[in-house]
Fold this sequence. Notes:
Radius of gyration: 13 Å
Structural class: alpha+beta
InterPro entries: Dimeric_a/b-barrel (IPR011008), L-rhamnose_mutarotase (IPR013448), Rham/fucose_mutarotase (IPR008000)
Strand order of the largest sheet: 2-3-1-4
GO molecular function: L-rhamnose mutarotase activity
EC number: 5.1.3.32
Number of helices: 3
Largest sheet: 4 strands, antiparallel
Keywords: Carbohydrate metabolism, Cytoplasm, Isomerase, Rhamnose metabolism
Protein name: L-rhamnose mutarotase
Helix content: 25-40%
Order of helices and strands: EHHEEHE
Amino acid sequence: xxxxxxxxxxxxxxxxEYEKRxxxxxxxxxxxLKEAGVSDYSIYWDEETNVLYASQKVEGGSSQSLGDNxxxxxxxxxxxxxxxxxxxxxxxxxxLKEVFYLK
Length: 103
């Protein structure tokens, strides 16, 4: 199993809506992520910068590699109004390099 982390960018004033939408995440999206081998998926919000930090464990593909799936594309479109996005509605994201891990 591999660990991955990345950051994304939340639009100002959209924190509550972002959290609400994730509290109501679609069952079909949760199932897709689990079937793809994604587990222990967490997202943290830095209030000072409005940057979201995500971490996940993956066996196979990560959540970032599911962009061709219609469920993921629908989720991206749903989230596009509250996050910085690319032209295809995928969230602007940057992979983070792990520099320390304590098991």
